[in-house]
Amino acid sequence: MNKDQLFEQIKRKKSFLCIGLDPALEKLPKHLLKYNNPVLTFNKEIIDATKDLCVAYKPNTAFYECMGLKGWETLIETWKHIPTDIFSIADAKRGDIGNTSAMYAEAFFNKDQSGMSFDAITVAPYMGKDSVEPFLKFEDKWVILLALTSNTGSIDFQQQLAAEGKLYENVLRIASTWANSEQMMFVVGATKGAEFRNVRKYAPDNFLLVPGVGAQGGSLDEVCENGLNQQCGLLINSSRGIIYAGDGEDFAEKAREEALKLQTQMEAWLRRANLI
Amino acid sequence: MNKDQLFEQIKRKKSFLCIGLDPALEKLPKHLLKYNNPVLTFNKEIIDATKDLCVAYKPNTAFYECMGLKGWETLIETWKHIPTDIFSIADAKRGDIGNTSAMYAEAFFNKDQSGMSFDAITVAPYMGKDSVEPFLKFEDKWVILLALTSNTGSIDFQQQLAAEGKLYENVLRIASTWANSEQMMFVVGATKGAEFRNVRKYAPDNFLLVPGVGAQGGSLDEVCENGLNQQCGLLINSSRGIIYAGDGEDFAEKAREEALKLQTQMEAWLRRANLI
Fold it and tell me: What are the domain boundaries of chain A?
């Protein structure tokens, strides 16, 4: 999916919601445990109940890998269940030397090889340009580079001063020379709401993937006020706040209610910004 | 495996060689293609032919993930084939917010959950302390944190000046407050041979995992001269130089010959340093 197509979806659905599919077996509604693959059943019901309210799904690979072989199979089957007109993000935080990043690109972008072909993958910037380039060779596929993450550990390096600005500012500035806003997004945590205006100085046209609304305490309004651009430019993610909204047989309905609340807020912001 | 046990293995085998198990299907000897799982057959023969010459094996997860479900199964089966007295490293370059890194720790350290229980995992430092801590909660399991990597992209951020020293120096300094040398190693590329003396200022007692000898052009002698410490403190990795030494039916024998060359050089360095 390219940038214009993503913006079209945002306008059509009046939403820039991304739903994180991070299912932990012990948190699933108990009635699902009777199924052969409770996690997959859970994911499918969540997707079916929310797909008209969001523009992206983001499975975090850790939650699948911890279940071993069955987990990897569940990740593939979950990707297959995401409708093709919804932006799919492998939240994998990968990144390695060039020949190895090329293998990760095959793993997440080439379904003939791996069974999965996500629209985007999250990548850690620490290893620099040649660790990112192999992902950019796939047409209409995206790198979502970690810039300023939502966790407390973002203070350790990202927010430390470098010789010129902070490290995350250098990541934004330098990585913007590797690819334009048609193929590069950045992760900026919602818990860093006040920094969005600064982020936009370095990345005015890029989409930003924004985790941290909900369980982590980030503010949707603060992110929108400082982060919206002329093509929306935001994918705001909620995982736990939506997928664990209920733990009974009506869990998917409850998830939909939470997704609807966020979509309604987002619609208001899109109107305020004259984007719809 | 703890640090003393690792040092015992090094003295016993007169080697600090780590062999990278990074098999690409198109590079395998052609006669293996008749097997149901050529990559697994390849890995098993490489391990069987070299296990008396090395102290560690390091499968890079990218090379397995790119083969989809069968690849993940091959990774698990490869881990099972590594003898328990050999240090096993999941070269996975993971790292995420705390609750997610905890899932990655389950994936690579808890075989009851995932089918695999490596001794160590490589982790990217960009997300800071709380992204690393969950891995440290496992007794006798190790984090191998990326510090100064072997690729050209290491110039982009790692070698850039921060307010105090270079970024990779800050990674060494700050991460050393998170865990001691019993649980924390660092990745330092062999292509950065001249920097090892500097690395040792920040990490005198830690083991360093050193990729980049061989195909990437790093010098074993330069690394040893500047990097050996009182418990050896080096695991020098070679992947392509060993596993692709031959492409005929005798590929495992050829791999053994290359491993033996490196082991012989390492033995000489261990003697010179009075460690054996």
Answer: 3-272
